[in-house]
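User: Can you predict the 3D structure for this chain?
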Amino acid sequence: DGTFEISYSITRAGFYSLDISASTGPEGLKGTPAPVRVYPNRAAASTAVVVGTGLSKASVDHVASFTIHSFDLFGNARPQGQESFAVVLEGGWTQAVDGSSRSVTRKAGIVQDLKNGSYAVTYYVSHSGPYSVQVSLDSVEISGSPFSTYVHSSETWIPMCEPMTVVPIRLPAGENKLKVLAKDRFG
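Assistant: Here is the predicted structure, written as structure tokens:
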């Protein structure tokens, strides 16, 4: 019918010049060359990058943090935010006097959109131990997730410590022992 459909694919964001011409003549299509700006596409879970110490270690009683940098499927850095990243931590432990008790903590991290394609993540947990850190974009885990981190306990807090043996009220002279389970202020 005399019409042509021209298809092209550009995977790198940036400024380009679009020039359309026919093999039958030296002149190009009216209005070309034309400046074209190609923007990054939506962020992709497979290309997101996570950096920061809070991804591998943290301490009870301190806010831990790390940063998510978003890229599109072609590796173009996102110049703005507005993506739906979520962070969930699961793990930790508490120990009873007999050493048998273990509990699992599940907590969401706080994700702050920095409006430049990066996201600041902070979290605070009150139980020490190993944790898994799941980072997802639109409910799809990013590459490398879940990550492993270890939350160290804070300083020993005597009011929370528990004797592991009966505290004697009468002791013979000489060397004696008392075993105590050390705990931080969160137990």
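The first strand starts at residue 14 and ends at 18. The chain has a mean pLDDT of 85.
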